[in-house]
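Notebook, bench 3.
Goal today: get a predicted structure for DUF951 domain-containing protein from Lactobacillus kalixensis DSM 16043 so we can plan the truncation constructs. The sequence was checked against the plasmid map this morning, with no discrepancies at the termini. Length recorded as 86 residues. Pasting the sequence as submitted so the record is complete.
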Amino acid sequence: MISNDSYGLADTVQMKKPHACQTNDWEVLRLGADIKLKCLGCGRMVMMSRADFNRKVKKVLTKANDPVNEKKEHYVPKESIARPNL
């Protein structure tokens, strides 16, 4: 279990159990009470509560805008993610 401040928008995280496509790597697309994740293996998007996410996440692989992320097929740069003006 990791703390809430160790991950952010557009970070890549590793989950404890693999997705159906046998990939553990996910990209964080939305933060709030619910967290939206995108599988970096098949591109599927899922939402889960923050409590479930904190329990199921294993570690943060890369932070946002890290050059390692740009090499991955389903990478979306942080500037391209739509954010509401609050």
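The mean pLDDT is 83. DSSP finds one helix and five strands in the chain.
Flagging this for group meeting.
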